[in-house]
Specification:
The complex is a heterodimer of chains A (189) and B (101). Helix content of chain A is 72%, strand content 0%. By secondary structure, chain A is mainly alpha-helical. With 101 residues, chain B is mainly alpha-helical. The longest helix of chain B has 19 residues. Chains A and B meet through helix 1, helix 2, helix 6, helix 7 and helix 9 of A and helix 4, helix 5 and helix 6 of B.
Chain lengths: 189, 101
Amino acid sequence: MDILRMCIPGVHPSTRAIESMVHLYGNKIYKLAYHMTGSSDDAEDVVQEVFLKLFRNWSQIGARRNLSAWIHRIVSNASLDLLRSRQARRRREVNADSERLEAVATGRRSDRPEARLDGSELNDRIALALDALSPQLAVALVLFDHEGLKAREIAGILNVAEATVRGYVSEARQRVKETLTPYLAGRTP
Amino acid sequence: MKGNKPFCEKISRSFHDYYDGELSLFMKRVVQKHLGACVPCRRDYVLLQMTIESIRQKVAPDVPPRLLKKIIRQFTDPGPGGKPAPRELLGGDWTDGLQRI
């Protein structure tokens, strides 16, 4: 179905268009936001915000050549906002934060239900490692390694230079690698 | 083979670009040759590869169906019982006839 054909300038979305968009993109947006924020509650907030923006800008959606790129941008910005506010909140919660960092350092399993997602220890550790990254690094890493976007596309989303994106991705990978090394070292061929 | 630290450090800075296929042919060959000869760097590169592949394979749960239902309801319900109507939520004028696209 060509969703963009449902978008007519100056006209609000029909019930059918709303249902189609939510079913077509809801899961994708949720998973992307989940990877970026590492939290199901935050991912739900992002999904709601994205659809609100999508339907508010409905009349302009049809003019967009690449809806997927627009969605990546909106999800990234919403996730960055959430991660930044979470980071600021954490600065005030020093005790809880040091406990989490200790968990990353010692490889102890997280108490967060999200981190026990599929019972896989590796998934837990990646979630914790991503959680310890700065918002920009986490979002750049997910867009590059998980979503397969080019550094140029991410630069446009984050409003930074392409070289900066490559720097973010390298730094983020390196930090995740440091966290995973004790676990992965035993699996190297 | 034991690594040559300054050279190893220089080469390891190219690992990300090497993995992403962003190096020039010349640099690609330099890295390949070094990886073939230096055990610590090879180990380091394998760990980087495993890290990136683990990130790529990380799974996320599916969106809860109740959330999708809630969003659809939020934007389509006319709003009895104090719920916001779509026109209030979305702003602007609604042309009911044109809504049925």
